[in-house]
Design brief:
The structure holds 2 protein chains of 2 kinds. Chain A is mainly α. Chain A has 12 helices and no strands. In chain B, helix 3 crosses helix 4, helix 4 crosses helix 5 and helix 10 packs across helix 11. The chains are: A mainly alpha, B mainly alpha.
Chain lengths: 262, 192
Amino acid sequence: MNDQLEFIDDYFQKQLSDEQRSRFEARCISDQEFAKEVAFYISSREALREVLLAEKKKAWAAITPKDLSSDEESKPLRMVGNADETAGAPVRKMQVKKWLSLAVAASVILAIIIYPLVSKDSGQDLVQNYVSNDLSRISNTMDASRDSMQTAINAFNEKKYQSAIDQFKIISESDPANNDALKYLGQSYLLAGNYDNALESFRALAAKPGLYSNPGLFLQAVTLVQRHDDGDLAAAKQLFEQVVSQKLDGEKQAAEWIRHLD
Amino acid sequence: MDDQEIINGLNAGSASRQTFEKELYLKYVYFIKEGIHHYHLSHDDSFSAYSDALLTVVHNVVDKSFAQRSSLKTYFYKIFSNKCIDQVRKNTTAKGKVNNSVADPETLVQLPDNVRSVIENLVENQRVQALRQQIETIGEKCKQILLLFQDGYTDREIAELTGYNNSSVAKVTRLRCLEKIREKMKGFISTE
């Protein structure tokens, strides 16, 4: 058996000691032939993943509920009933479950409409809750498995904001295309109470062209509410209105909070 | 069935894996509608994103990369959203049609940044597609072993499922199957 291939396999299976791992990584950089072997291994794994996914998709498509299958939307409402029940004209029955779902949905919509009217929370409380609950933790996505990002995210989640700031700053400066790093840098400044720098990061994020998903403007508004200097709330409201009118990231929250910022 | 039961079931060994994978698939299958409405994807694209995300989630649960710092649902949805965005990019940018790089193969992200940039340049979509064709030519047994491995099964589990004496034999066989693919790839001319 090819020892080199086993060495590579062991690396990705996390079977090597720290010293062996360092040797492996150094060799990838210094030995072009070895790097090609590693690239072959990774390409093969990717090809296998594609084949595996294609097979899984076939199996999963077969168990997908009817109302989620691709041709369901064009189907007319199903006619149900046995011969006795349909002795006259066929009866169109909507399942009880569907009625229940509709009732629940209606209640939720009603609650969403009524809640802001009766709620005594100020816009600032709502934003504060959002910062504490939604911005104080960064989830570990696949992307976070990159070493430097992972370390910085860990520092953030452990509330070591200065360390997170230092690391996200290095990452976003060395890789200007890494928009997540820029966003997390702003988040770190925000949670550390350094609002001016947070605003600067979110402004830079908002200015990035061509992003499908860009929360830059929304986060600027959140930061302004948190800073609460003269004129900040009015400026935040304007930004939230812009987020809503342009249907940007954070649109739903912005629409709700605008009513509380008067 | 709650999320913790699913996580426990996925980790309970090869015998129960498929059952709990199916449970997880069905529990959050409504994400597909979210992909259609929120990301304006076609049903097929949203289904692909959902399937792709599910595969990643299951593997991350099994290999313990998912540390349960967030709920399984949040974690799953985050990955699903990323896959939807990938689909949108693929559909809307001309670059997606001609791009010859492979966006973040899951194995590649295990490398540290400086090494990854070296290897990344050597991993090409064109080569991956050629490899995919070769996988169909190496025989059913080899293909089965490699797919089980790619699906997150350990060599010990592969030995149990395929009738090999022990994990060492399964590993040697698996690596020989990979070598078989490499032999077949010798005729493939890279564009590098």
